[in-house]
Amino acid sequence: MSAARQSGSTALYKTDLAGVALKPQESRIIAGWLLGRYGAVNDDSWMKLIYADNAVQISGRSTLRRQSNLLKARLGLVSADVLQLIADGSYRQTIHACLAAAIKHSRVLGDFMDVVLRREYGSGGRELDLYHWRTFLEACKLRDPNMGDWSPASSIRIRTTVMSILHEADLVDRGKPVIIKPPVYEKTVIDILERDQESWCLRCMRYDQ
Q1: What's this model's pTM, rounded to 2 decimal places?
Q2: Which residue of 15, 77, 142, 146 has the fewest CB atoms within a 10 Å radius of its CB?
Q3: pLDDT tens digits, residue range 32-58?
């Protein structure tokens, strides 16, 4: 049984993040679909956009299905104003808006930023290595009895995706070790998140406070 099946749908921490970083170009297209720019927002227009037109240009039908569905679920959690930033904003606006959506969708990502980045950044160490990831997952298991046991391969894939997301958002310098950077976001993104009362996203993003 896969790690995702073991963790179950009621788990707080899930493995579905694996392999799907922020994907700004694909997210622009899917945000446009959610905003109704490709016709009615229904199954027919989705199937045409993703499968017939392959607008997101993800190779492999199973990979296309999994990643496009995850991005749709992720972006479906934010307001129309955030979606407009993703679809039409500058690269940095799109990246930071996608980060907010990813935090809302993945408690693994959000808690890693809120707990680990906040602690290490605040301590002045600002270095991340495999030890921090392993201890974070151990703490997650204590918080979430439904989490189940993740395989070593799943753990590595999710860590790689989390680090990719943080690097895309310019929050870490990737190397050995990974170095945490001070968070700097586009003001337009922060203003919209504050107006939308996205307190959880903002807390995770502001790990320097």
Answers
A1: 0.92
A2: 142
A3: 999 999 999 999 999 999 999 999 998
